Every structure is written in C-alpha cells, then in structure tokens.
TrEMBL record:
Keywords: Cytoplasm, Hydrolase, RNA-binding, tRNA-binding
Record-given protein name: D-aminoacyl-tRNA deacylase
Known partners and oligomeric status: Homodimer.
Keyword check for tRNA-binding: yes
Superkingdom, natural source: Bacteria
Amino acid sequence: MKLLLQRVRHAKVDVADETVGEIAQGLLAFIGLEKHDDEAAVEKMMERLLNYRVFADEQGRMNLSVVDINGGVLLVSQFTLAADTSKGRRPGFSTAAEPTRAKNLYVHALACLREQHADVAAGKFGADMQISLLNDGPVTFLLES
C-alpha cells in the first residue's frame, strides 16, 4: 500500500462536475492498494495517517497530527500509485490489487478513518475525478506499508 499525503489549506474532489468530497485545512490522502494488502495493513496505515505529525506547533516544528489540529482528511483512491515504475517507459500494474478487492479495502479504510476522526471526506472509487487543492508548504509525504 502506498499513501501519498499532502498537507492542504483546502481540497475537494469532483465527479461529473459535482463535488463529492471536500475539506478545509487537513490532509489530502491518495491511496494505492496492492495485491498483498489486507484489512490489518489498511487499519495500521489509517492509524498512521491520522497520527502522522506534519502540522506546525507553536515553535513552527512539525509536531502536530491532523487529529491534533482537528483538520479534515480527504481520502482518494489512486490506482496509479500501485504502478511498478522500476524500469521501462510505461508503468506496469501487475502489483495493483484487483478492482473488487481494492474497492473493499478502500471502503474499509474509510470506515476506519470515520470511526476515529470526525472530519473525513472521500472521492468516488473508480471514477474519473478532478482534484482541486491548495498544498500548504508544499508538504508531501509518501508512506508505504
């Protein structure tokens, strides 16, 4: 599993010109699910996401999590994060989770986040999505399981 986190001032996801998920300050999290991922790995990664310290404290140090600042989380499935880009000029997707399994894991990830945090929004799995964001920093991290 790969989780690309972007600290944002605000972010939203539109599908067919309709906003399906939106947050103010917080984390935009793109999730790429791979064949070996399971519910336990998803649960661990969602806990990590919520507690990853990327927001500034009073001294300007990255010591606060999205939970600490009561920020939003916008979770968006992104199949291309699971691509194998180690060679050649075209990404390979043999390591990506099969679509039905990936969707089930994505739904589980959302449930985990919503159990632990109030402000959670989502994209639409498998849809053509347009993402708008204002990256804060810019601050971007790639977490891998």
